[in-house]
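Attaching the record inline, Q. Sequence:
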Amino acid sequence: MRDADYYFTIEQEGVAEFKDRGSKFIACIFPLKSVDEFKTILENTKKKYPKASHYCFAYRIGLDGNTFRVSDDGEPSGTAGKPVFGLLESKQLTDILIVVVRYFGGTLLGVPGLINAYRSAAALALQTTPVIQKAVEVRYKLHFDYTIMNEVMTVVKYYSCSILQQEAQLFCDMEIGIPRNRLNEVLFKLQHIRGLELKQMDQINSV
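Structure, as predicted:
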């Protein structure tokens, strides 16, 4: 994923339900940008389903694949979070969280049954949520006089750069994400705008 110019993620939430021998598994899927955001989503999910017996999850953030976490939340080790995470890996998805809420139905499903139930619930949730392809971006900070705003925006819009932050007064400060596969073209255009200061902020960005 690190060397690709594009990555796969979601932009909207989804939910799906799977039942097996009385137990109900509700899979909730969310776009995710940070660990702090994850904590808030998990807390809200527990409030939404307060009487559930388990809140298992898997998430992955960023482009290097190193920011991830799985939880079985009391289920036998490897039966819940890991199967859900396996789906994220197989579909090469990032910036995504799946929480599977279980209501215990009174019958033990066993290890194979649990793995199948959690994986099936997560797979159904993924089917309800469109997967999108987004460009890997490199972040730059721009500083310029307001009078050249139109020149700057012409380049930004033409090359489908993301505007991450913007403060426009007499002087403008703007953070943009430049698609990595168009980086040289965009920098060439921006560097030829008189009065524009340009500074790279970090190497790679998945926003």
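The CA atoms of residues 3 and 63 lie 9 Å apart. The chain has a mean pLDDT of 94.

More tomorrow.
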